[in-house]
Amino acid sequence: MPDPTTWTVAQLLDVVQRAISQALGGDVWIEGEITSISRPANGHVYLQLAQIDDPAADELPQLIPERVDARPRRAPRSTLSVVLLSRFRRQVNDQLLRTGGAVRMTEGVRVRIRGSVEVYGPRSEIQLRMTAIDPSYTLASLGLERDRVLRALADAGLLDLNGRLPVPFLPLRIAVLTSLGSAAHADFVDELARSGFGFEVSAFDVRVQGPHAAGTIVRAIERAAGHDLIAIVRGGGSRTDLAAFDDESLARAVAAAPTVIWSGVGHETDTTVIDHVAHTAFKTPTACAVGIVDAVRAGVDAFDRSWAAVEAAASAALDLAERRLARRVVGVSARSTGALDDAARRLQRRSLRVATAPLWRLDQADERLGAVAEQVRTRPERLLQSADASLAAIATTVRAYDPGRALERGWSITRRGDGRLARASDLRAGTVLHTLLVDGEVRSVVDATTTVAEP
């Protein structure tokens, strides 16, 4: 058998290129999602186009207000390198401009493009050399996806869930979710500052376009819990730029948030899915800030009206009290005048009694004083005579019981050594005795004792 033909790499790639060209017959239309895009200085545009299949409806998580999960990560089934050469770039841009700038080629955007399939020799890979784009496909795809999301939210009862939350009386603690440093951020903050109210603004930096925007906003909503109000704002842009705000996981997070969320995304003609689930939607970031200022002003006005009502009620109560006090003053004055007249008459009568009463009181006192003086003159003498008689009787009694008189009659007093009176029953032989006589004292020692029975 003949030896097989040996080809060079270039020959093989050339055969593959001719086979592709013959099979496709020229340019083809390709649809897919842009997963990456770059615009280097050489004027060309390089992008990766991928076929990404959405998970089946029964594979989507059942998102409820108590638990907000992101949709499952979608993995590309296949990818294709695309190059838009600079000579075709103006043509493609003209096609995009015919939509009024509604479509831009960015990551996460589904597109339908036209071009020729070629084998790129330096990397031995197939690529599409892009020459045209169908913007209507992208707009239709965005519209269909948006309608699907709105139906899912309506079926879950989430479209008015956040809208049922009460707006705080004075929403002064504001969390703004936006791209820091953007015009939307500056306009929003400046509008609040010009109001003169004491807003406390916490800014959360989030992505506002691209495939990762929805996730950053969802996480920021969780961190902003506890504020009076959350504002999600972004300036205008193409429909594809605002596609992140049509994301189902973001819409469910907004609906299920425990805090009132207001949206101000895009320009006057822009409407996104989160505008349908937010508590209140405004056309622009500035309009959203104005709405917050108006809510605070309404609260202040209500407070002023309440204070005015309190002031009016207090004034009316004071007027009524003053009228009642005036009537009571008249009554008190009349009663006081009558009381004073009665007191004056009683005082006059008492003054008359005071003027005459001292005379007879002095006469009575003089009589009592004379009787007391007589008693003072005579009573001491009688008391002294009675005392002398009592003293003489006591002296007689004392003399009768005087031990000296008994000693004079021949009696003696015998005591033991410890001073107690001596008794025969208490004495023993050898006991020392002391005997008191009328003219002296005798010391003796007991030789023997004899006791006499008591009669």
What do you see in this structure?
This protein has helices spanning 9-24, 86-97, 135-155, 183-194, 213-223, 248-256, 273-277, 285-400, 403-408; strands spanning 28-38, 45-52, 76-84, 110-120, 125-133, 173-178, 200-205, 229-234, 261-265, 280-282, 413-416, 432-437, 440-445. It has 455 residues and is of the alpha/beta class. Among the domains are: 9-133, Beta Barrel (OB fold (Dihydrolipoamide Acetyltransferase, E2P)); 162-297, Response regulator (Rossmann fold, 3-Layer(aba) Sandwich), CATH 3.40.50; 404-445, no CATH class. Helix 4 links the parallel strand 6 and strand 7 (200-205). The longest helix is centred in the last third of the chain and has 116 residues, at 285-400. Residues 55-73 have low confidence and may be disordered.
- Based on Cα principal axes, name the global outline: elongated
Largest sheet geometry: 5 strands, mixed, barrel
Q: Rounded to an integer, what's the Rg over CA atoms? A: 62 Å
CATH superfamily of the domain at 162-297: Response regulator
Give the beta-strand count: 13
**Helix fraction?**
40-55%
Low confidence ranges: 55-73
CATH topology of the domain at 162-297: Rossmann fold
Name of the CATH first level of the domain at 162-297: Alpha Beta
Spatial strand order of the main sheet? 1-2-3-5-4
Question: What order do the SSEs take from the amino end to the carboxyl end, as H and E?
Answer: HEEEHEEHEHEHEHEHEHHEEE
Q: How far is it from the N-terminal to the C-terminal residue, by CA?
A: 181 Å
Please identify, by name, the CATH architecture of the domain at 162-297. 3-Layer(aba) Sandwich
What structural class is derived from the secondary structure elements? alpha/beta
Percent strand: 15-25%
Mean pLDDT: 86
Tally of contiguous helical segments: 9
